[in-house]
Structures are given as C-alpha cells and as structure tokens.
Design goal:
about 250 residues, 9 strands, alpha+beta, single chain
Amino acid sequence: MKKIILMIITSCFLSLGFGDNHYPNTFTMEALQCKFAQGNDMDDAKRVIAQWKDNADKNFSAPYNAWVLTPLYTSSEDVDFDFAWIGFTENAASMGRIQDEWIATGAETIGAKWERATDCAGQALYGVAEARAPKTSFEEGQIGYLAVSNCSFKEGKTGLDLAENDKAWNTYDDENGFEGGVWRWWPGAGSPTSYKHDFLLAIGYSSVEEYGRDRDNNLAAMRAGTRPESILNCDAPRIYTSENVRLVSPE
C-alpha cells in the first residue's frame, strides 16, 4: 500500500449484495500519511494534536473520531511515511461539515503549527463498510493494531457476493474466538489514480498476540479444509500500531 486513501460511499456501492436491506454499518473516512519535519518527532506532533482536539471539542458539530497509525510490520518499499492519520464521520456530509468548521476555526493557526511539525502528503477520502463489528467498544486513547491489505475480487466474484461471504467468515471468526473488527475501505476523492485494486481490507486486533493467534487459526483451517471460501485476492498485510486520539459517540 503505497498510499493510504479516503473514500465517499455511493448509493450504488450500498446496494451491492444487500438486497434484503440488511446493510452493513457505513462511514466516511479521511486519511493522511505524514513524515516528521526535520528536528521533530511524535512528541511534537502529539502536542499539536492536543491543540487540534481542544479545537475540535469546541467547534465540531458532528462526531469525528481519529486514530494515529505508526508502522509496525512494514517494508520501506511499501510504507515510506512515519505515521498516518485516519479520521471518521458518520457520512460524507458530516465529513464536509467538519472540514468547513476546521477551515473556519483552526486551519490557519493550529494548521500552521502542524505544518511546522509534520510533512503530510496528500489527503484522501474512503467509503468504509463494516464487515464485522468488534466485540468490545472503542475507548479514547486506546492502543490497538490494524492489519491493512489491498484486495481485489477473484474472477467471477463481485460485490454481490460480499454479504453471504461475510456471514460465513463471521461464523468462522466467532467459532475461533476472534473479537476484532473488519472493515473495507473503498477509495474515493483524492486517492491515487494508479490504484489498481478494488479496496483495502482493514482488520483490527487488541494485541499482536491476537494477530498471531488469528494467523495460526487460519493456517490450521486451511490445512484441515475448514476455512471459508475466499472471494478475494489480497496481498500480505501491513500492520500498524493504532492509537485513538479522539472518540465521540453519536448523540
């Protein structure tokens, strides 16, 4: 994954595979990938993030939740940034409103401090569909881990197959005690035009041990022939440490 991107969900996407009106939870996400400006580090970035959060608490009129991702298991060939920022709203209109409010209240002052501490390349939108909800609620300041892969549908498979396949995988995950969440990030505005896959698959873990246990279970199920059918071709994941920096529940 050379770029982390963002997307906006369309009505066509929402209808794929969910003709019985049991739609997955959906969100809009924005993402940036950043390097530290010369002489700066994460402590400097977090000082600015604290000011951003104060401004957001005072001025954002819609829930906006954000995480900072730092590379853990990655290669420099695929990941050439120091950290990524991913922020979520309930829908695209709320994301637009948040951007307008940020521009009006903090972009000039706090944004200038951010630019002195970091060098962030581009900004993109994703439409997010939740294939599996995590078993435990998020907590502000929570540390977790996120595995992100590029995925494309196998020949003959489409979005119409997602709902049924998700059911099989969720049953399998429940039987194996997996408690994390699974999300699909569909690239939208600002994403690279060179992106050749269908979407990014993001899987959340509470610990690195949980990731390892999930991997062991999948390998054992493959050998036993009990693993659900995969309708996707996905590359090896990049794994990031995720730290929540703002969490607001919808009213």
